[in-house]
Amino acid sequence: MAGNVQQRQARFILAVYAATAVVYAVLAPLIGFRPACGAFGIFGLAGFTPLIGRKDRRAGKVVMDERDLSIDREATVAGYSFFWLFFVAACMIPWVVKGPDGTISVNFLMLMLGFGAFILLVVWSLVILILYRRQDDDPVQ
Amino acid sequence: MTRCSEISNRIRRLRFDHGEMTQEALADRAGVTRQTIIALEAAKYVPSLLLAFRIAGVFGVGIEEVFQYEPSS
Questions:
Q1: Could you give the residue ranges of the DSSP H alpha helices within A32-106?
Q2: Per-residue pLDDT tens for B44-66?
Q3: pLDDT confidence tier of residue A58, bands split at 50, 70 and 90
Q4: Partner residue facing A141 (CB), from B22, B31, B44
């Protein structure tokens, strides 16, 4: 994969999530929506993200400099901002729909956490790719 | 806030004047990635003071010879 470590990590995360969505979309009509939720286990592959760039780090190369940290900071703020928006919406919508005396399944809490993490990482990945793309590579040495 | 357009630099010229130093070589000596050098030369990134001094140190010149500040009116 081309690009620096953060770009490769961002693309890897988006690829894992896209694969999860595709597998779920294929399985759901075949075995049902709830059983197909097993496809979300593919998310776990995103745990391997820190391994990307390990070879460069071991070789003593500079993997993250001040510019990379600055971009990472902006992407993290964006990710948490969208997570917060989602969290507020997830809390408010059931209250509006069900009313103050309504009840919801505890599964909703787990889904809220899972989707919140999903949104955080997807937004982080997209913002990383967008911010790096803005500073176009100039191949001329 | 300092915008990229207010700070210009002569990094590319200085590289060529110092034995046609490559972006990779400058990046290694300044302790940053080659992508950062590319962004600096394209004036798409404003370095920190520390990085600016490091780059000037690589060329053995003062910081004003590498970076110039032109306030926008």
A1: 54-58, 66-98
A2: 899 999 999 999 999 999 999 99
A3: confident
A4: B22
Farthest-apart Cα atoms in chain B, separation: 37
> What are the structure tokens assigned to A58, written together?
């071991």
DSSP string computed for A108-119: HHHHHHHHHHHH
> Distance between CA A71 and CA B39 in Å, rounded?
13
In the numeric block, the tokens 């770009």 are attached to A7
CA distances from A92 to A85, A98, A117 (A): 11, 10, 18
SS3 of residue B43 by DSSP: coil
The residue written with tokens 């998310």 in the block is A43
Task: Examine the pLDDT at A3 and tell me if it is beyond 90.
Answer: no
Q: Which helix (H) or strand (E) holds B25?
A: helix B23-30
Do the Cβ atoms of A62 and B48 come within 8 Å? no
Q: How far is A18 from chain B (nearest CA, A)?
A: 28
Shortest CA distance to A66 belongs to which of A74, A58, A54? A74
Q: Is A133 exposed, middle or buried (0-12, 13-18, 19+ CB in 10 A)?
A: exposed
Contact A114, A40 (CB under 8 A): yes
Does A135 contact B33 at a Cβ distance shorter than 8 Å? Answer: no
Q: What is the ipTM of this complex?
A: 0.84
